[in-house]
Backbone:
């Protein structure tokens, strides 16, 4: 049975999906947002709540390679999807990904609350840059990151971190 | 968690229609970026929902045999912008929806949802008006197609019958062939904003690029629903391409529009900006159509970028 | 050059960690998603509390009908304004004063029958989940007796205006004045030019991305509150006051917090959450503020209206000056008059003048409550003062840069009240550096005669700031250090990490003074009032300066103990040994005697002379320090489009010695970003007819996105602050103080239009450009 109702008539559904590389399944209250599911059922607390209406970007995760604000995405829609949160970026040996390291090196982190969402957007941006071989301009990066509100950094060092990582990856790709 | 009484997930268009008939009080949820926000506000709390989110048959852009561009209603803004057919034939629509919210919103927001919520500020709507788009609706009685201007009834209300869903948006060949256009969104910041005013213009120039053969001027937020500036269009048709013509078309816009006073912006301000946007978008549309404006207004009105 | 300065400059041959851009101590946790914030720590089975806010701006609650709400499944407890104890409490995050006259105004109850703004707290619901709690809120029926309300400060001061608080006639919370010299007589001097201006700043909100959130539970008869606060020890005191229980009955824990900017320098919903917890048998209750509540029902920045008159001699010096301001307090006292008073206090100092008359009023209105926000009255005052300075220079036909050079606070200036001394010619040095780096003169010339629809202009402004709150309030800091077996240490202070990087610079200071590697310092980031030494928390721009003293003293004390132990173990006299890079070294020949780890292990497990090496010091700080700087701005103005874009922005600061240059730059970026929003787009709006806030969300309230900025440029002058333990002083708030007037002055150069109100939104530009005949 993939659907059931409790005594209070709450409706549940079995949601099977891949989260940070692992196949997972759990019964989910159909009223839950994807943020609720990731935080409450899988303890992936990098997924932050800042506005719950898709305006701040703190809950941003990758679904099938594209960025979504998980607060306005129903958990049941995640069925069959491939989801990546910040917790999934680190390598199995504990090695940080290049973009995580760049956020540290460029002092792009302050209070850290917007950071997980921003890094996940950066992951999509960098993968697109690598795939297409396209070097985004500073202005284009601003637009690609404009779905995140940050009150600490003025976006300056965030842009530096993303830009430098992009250039490194493109140089590495060109060198091969 | 959202205060949802029940969620029914449609497996196909036919299934969605069946579910809507079985649950007459249920509302449709597509991408959810508007519906879920309203549930949270309490406006639709305790709602029954029919989710059409997983209907992949409603995603994507096709060119039909007769040259009609068909945009599936669930196609997300970002996919519209990236679509090669859109880029080739009606790139201005891709540019317009590339100005909705921010990247994540453009990944979840659908063009069907954007038009079905009947909001005048929708970035897609004015451009669809300018392309003379046709709305395809599928219901228990089959498919009906209506011009977009008839789809909008009043603010927040569109011509969607009970148990009917919007399945596609069509742009006919005669609507786009030979036209070039430009959309300008006027907002208070450069991202994550709704339009204070939106102006989308298409033009068709004579072969020698000296005359306006056709002009379509569409606005969002210049009235309760998206609209065309019919007087201004009529005025300009057949006139020579010139700064003088463009200025006068812009001046004529005030006969068509009826913006309102609100805390977001005053009527007088919106009227002023309507004129400015018309002149700038028109100048850019002419340029894109291969024309030049002999007595360019940019020294007086500024360039196309805002 | 002093001894410590010499040392820090690296002239004593030691390796230094102060002045180095080491990575943040918490960066790894934050880029991996492991840093736990309040909501991340709260158990999933906790109850959820939600607050019912008033839907009128002023009046009395006659009744609350809870009958329908109580029937909703999952509702556990409903508490209304008729149920809560009558313990009036203050909310400002100021140090407590044992002198009644200096205590903050205690005008809050947990829930109120007398509703004073749209969004006031009327009732609260505790439920098993958020859906049940929201349903219950919608089912509560409140009957009000409505009263007239007032939103404007000047109208609120009229005799017939609605009164918000009995004790404050004409709604005036406070009025203070400065009288220097003889203004009335001085203005009679022949040949003076009078320049007069009115300036208005808006109500804005902090918009930290983490909303205020807390949860409370009872343990061994005490209440534990875990909360996103800037000041856990103050929070403990206020919870105790609000609940009428001994302060020791409350324990407050502060984990990582997602920004504060002064909003979390007020005690917000912690007392209510703690109270609700006591009403459900001590079970865990979480009170998570929504974004809308954060905008309306937490705190905002004071909107201030200014009036400035200057009488100027033909040589461009000031003969006499008058300053008046009216600060919009909103419905409750919170930080009260301190903000307006600070704004006025800088007026006689920034451009000294012998004859000054200044008055400032803080006035209650039926609006959201104003409290502390980054800059604490100075961004407002600088907008008025530096706009006015520009206007004065223009009126005198003088270059405004040169006019400032002529009049701005001189080297050696000493403020009589605070005893602050301008030890260097800081502002002039910053101005000169900025002028050079910004290529200001060339651009100023180039843009001097702009025409056409799209125009450019440059402008500048300076700012005045100081570091802490002495001598207005207590300044104190306490620190504890504990030596581990491996020679590493734990450091605890009452000053809190709120995103600014405090923990990192604390670790740098401790490592520097002790002579151990930076990596050997473990800062305990979370504060817990049961464990952490007493401290008043993160506010003003005090963290680095104030904590520096206790860290320095504690490290010296620990070092003393370590060297004594080293003497016992090695037989070398103390004067000949030191700790260098984590080793005990004989300095006479550089001989490495033992590692600090060997020493610590030997001492901890010694069967003859056992001991755990720890140190703790608490110190009162009776100094304060000026922190000055300036901003240079370039704008592009689209006149028909009624829009301003900042195309270039540079902040120059003298905040003394930079402990960590990379973090300092980052701190300045954030302030500049906030200031661009302040200048151009941010304003919390209230409906004139109802008092209802109109744009209480992140879509309608326009803080800057990444697309609303140019790249942000920063520059520093490092004049070693002589009163400081490490030569450093304020940088947290200063960056937000001068960009708005600099941008305004750039718009003035571009268009000839002097805008005396912020934000310079299209709405305002449309009206002003029309008046000026530009459109």
Residues:
């Amino acid at each position: 049975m993939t659907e059931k109702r409790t005594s209070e008539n709450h409706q549940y559904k079995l949601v099977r999906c891949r989260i940070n590389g692992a196949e997972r399944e759990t019964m989910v209250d159909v009223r839950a947002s994807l943020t609720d599911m990731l935080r409450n059922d899988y303890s992936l607390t990098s997924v932050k709540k800042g506005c719950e209406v898709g305006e701040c970007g703190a809950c941003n995760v990758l679904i099938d390679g594209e960025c979504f604000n998980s607060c306005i995405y129903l958990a049941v829609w995640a069925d069959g999807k491939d989801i990546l949160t910040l917790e999934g970026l680190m390598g199995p040996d504990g090695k940080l990904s290049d973009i995580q390291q760049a956020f540290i090196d460029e002092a792009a982190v302050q209070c850290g609350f917007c950071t997980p969402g921003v890094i996940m957007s950066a992951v999509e941006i960098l993968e697109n840059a690598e795939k297409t071989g396209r070097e985004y301009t500073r202005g284009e990066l601003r637009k690609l990151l404009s779905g995140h509100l940050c009150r600490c950094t003025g976006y300056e060092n965030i842009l530096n971190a993303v830009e430098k990582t992009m250039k490194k990856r493109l140089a590495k790709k060109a060198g091969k | 968690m959202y205060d949802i009484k029940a969620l029914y997930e449609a497996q196909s268009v036919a299934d969605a229609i069946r579910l809507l008939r079985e649950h007459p009080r249920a509302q449709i949820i597509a991408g959810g970026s508007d519906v879920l926000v309203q549930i949270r506000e309490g406006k639709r709390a305790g709602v029954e929902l029919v989710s059409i989110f997983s209907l992949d048959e409603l995603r994507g852009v096709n060119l039909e045999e007769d040259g009609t561009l068909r945009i599936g209603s669930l196609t997300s803004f970002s996919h519209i912008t990236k679509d090669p057919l859109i880029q080739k034939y009606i790139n201005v629509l891709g540019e317009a929806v590339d100005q909705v919210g921010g990247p994540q919103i453009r990944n979840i927001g659908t063009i069907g949802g954007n038009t079905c919520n009947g909001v005048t500020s929708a970035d897609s709507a004015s451009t669809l008006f300018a392309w003379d788009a046709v709305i395809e609706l599928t219901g228990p009685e089959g498919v009906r197609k209506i011009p977009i201007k008839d789809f909008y009834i009043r603010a927040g209300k569109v011509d969607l019958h009970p148990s009917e869903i919007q399945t596609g948006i069509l742009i006919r060949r005669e609507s786009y062939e030979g036209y070039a256009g430009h959309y300008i969104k006027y907002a208070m910041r450069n991202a994550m904003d709704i339009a204070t005013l939106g102006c989308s213009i298409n033009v068709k120039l004579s072969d020698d690029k000296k005359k306006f053969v056709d002009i379509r001027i569409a606005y969002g937020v210049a009235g309760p629903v998206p609209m065309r500036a019919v007087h201004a269009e009529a005025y300009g048709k057949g006139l020579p391409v010139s700064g003088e013509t463009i200025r006068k078309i812009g001046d004529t816009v005030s006969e068509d529009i009826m913006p309102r006073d609100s805390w977001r912006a005053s009527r007088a301000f919106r009227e002023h900006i309507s004129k400015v946007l018309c002149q700038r978008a028109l100048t850019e549309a002419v340029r894109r159509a291969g024309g030049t404006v002999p007595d360019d207004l940019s020294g007086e009105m500024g360039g196309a970028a805002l | 050059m002093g001894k410590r300065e010499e040392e820090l400059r690296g002239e004593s041959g030691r390796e230094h960690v102060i002045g180095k851009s080491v990575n943040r101590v918490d960066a790894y946790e934050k880029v991996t998603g492991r840093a736990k914030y309040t909501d991340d720590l709260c158990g999933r089975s906790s109850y959820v509390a939600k607050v019912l806010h008033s839907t009128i701006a002023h009046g009395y609650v006659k009744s609350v009908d809870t009958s329908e709400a109580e029937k909703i499944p999952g509702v556990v407890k409903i508490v209304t304004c008729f149920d809560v104890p009558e313990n009036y409490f203050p909310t400002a995050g100021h140090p407590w004063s044992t002198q009644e006259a200096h205590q903050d105004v205690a005008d809050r109850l947990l829930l109120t029958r007398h509703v004073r703004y749209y969004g006031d707290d009327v009732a609260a619901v505790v439920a098993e989940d958020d859906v049940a709690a929201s349903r219950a809120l919608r089912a509560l029926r409140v009957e009000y007796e409505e009263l007239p309300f007032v939103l404007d400060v000047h109208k609120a001061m009229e005799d017939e205006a609605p009164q918000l608080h009995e004790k404050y006639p004409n709604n005036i919370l406070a009025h203070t004045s400065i009288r220097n010299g003889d203004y009335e007589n001085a203005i009679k001097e022949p040949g003076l030019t009078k320049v007069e201006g009115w300036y208005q700043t808006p109500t804005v909100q902090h918009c930290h991305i983490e909303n205020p959130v807390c949860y409370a539970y009872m343990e061994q008869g005490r209440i534990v509150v875990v909360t996103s606060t800037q000041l856990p020890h103050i929070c403990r005191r206020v919870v105790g006051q609000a609940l009428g229980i001994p302060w020791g009955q409350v324990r407050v824990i502060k984990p990582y917090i997602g920004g504060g900017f002064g909003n979390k320098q007020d005690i917000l919903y912690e007392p209510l959450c703690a109270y609700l917890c006591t009403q459900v048998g001590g079970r865990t209750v979480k009170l998570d503020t929504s974004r809308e509540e954060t905008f309306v029902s937490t705190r905002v920045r004071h909107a201030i209206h200014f009036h400035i008159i200057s009488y100027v001699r033909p040589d461009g010096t000031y003969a006499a000056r008058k300053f008046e301001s009216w600060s919009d307090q909103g419905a409750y006292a919170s930080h009260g008059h301190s903000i307006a008073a600070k704004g006025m206090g800088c007026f006689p100092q920034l451009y000294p003048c012998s004859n000054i008359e200044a008055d400032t009023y803080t006035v209650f209105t039926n609006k959201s409550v104003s409290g502390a926000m980054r800059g604490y009255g100075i961004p407002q005052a600088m907008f008025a003062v530096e706009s006015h300075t520009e206007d004065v220079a223009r009126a005198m036909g003088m270059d405004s840069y040169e006019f400032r050079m002529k009049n701005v606070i001189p080297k050696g200036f000493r403020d009589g009240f605070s005893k602050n001394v301008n030890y260097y010619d800081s502002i002039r040095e910053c101005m000169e550096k900025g002028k050079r780096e910004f290529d200001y003169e060339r651009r100023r010339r180039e843009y001097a005669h702009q025409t056409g629809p799209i125009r450019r202009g440059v402008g500048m402004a300076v700012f005045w700031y100081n570091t802490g709150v002495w001598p207005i309030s207590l300044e104190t800091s306490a620190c504890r250090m504990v030596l581990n077996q491996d020679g590493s240490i734990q450091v605890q202070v009452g000053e809190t990490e709120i995103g600014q990087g405090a923990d990192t610079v604390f670790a740098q200071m401790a490592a520097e003074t002790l002579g151990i590697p930076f990596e050997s310092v473990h800062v305990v980031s979370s504060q817990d009032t049961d464990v952490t030494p007493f401290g008043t928390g993160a506010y003003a721009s005090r963290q680095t300066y104030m904590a520096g003293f206790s860290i320095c003293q504690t490290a010296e004390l620990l070092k003393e103990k370590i060297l004594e132990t080293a003497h016992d173990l090695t037989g070398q006299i103390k004067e000949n040994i030191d700790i260098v890079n984590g080793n005990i070294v004989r300095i006479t020949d550089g001989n490495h005697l033992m590692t600090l780890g060997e020493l610590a292990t030997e001492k901890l497990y010694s069967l003859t002379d056992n001991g755990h090496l720890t140190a703790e010091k608490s110190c009162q700080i009776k100094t304060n320090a000026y922190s000055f700087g300036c901003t240079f701005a370039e704008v592009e103005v689209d006149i028909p489009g009624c829009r301003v874009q900042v195309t270039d922005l540079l902040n120059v600061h003298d905040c003394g010695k930079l402990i960590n240059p990379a973090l300092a730059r980052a701190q300045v970026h954030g302030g500049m970003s906030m200031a661009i929003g302040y200048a151009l787009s941010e304003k919390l709006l209230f409906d004139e007819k109802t008092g209802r806030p109109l744009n209480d969300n992140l879509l309608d309230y326009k803080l800057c996105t990444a697309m609303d900025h140019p790249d942000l440029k920063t520059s520093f002058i490092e004049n070693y602050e002589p009163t400081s333990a490490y030569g450093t002083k304020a940088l947290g708030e200063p960056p937000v103080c001068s960009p708005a007037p600099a941008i305004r002055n750039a718009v003035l150069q571009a268009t000839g239009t002097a805008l005396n109100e912020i934000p310079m939104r299209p709405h305002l530009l449309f009206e002003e450009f029309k008046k000026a005949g530009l459109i």
Observations:
- The interface with chain C takes residues 1-3, 42, 45-46, 102, 186, 188-194, 196, 263-266, 268-269, 272-273, 276, 298-303, 306 of chain B (CB under 8 Å).
- The longest helix of chain B spans residues 267-288.
- The mean pLDDT of chain B is 95.
- Chain B has 14 helices and 14 strands.
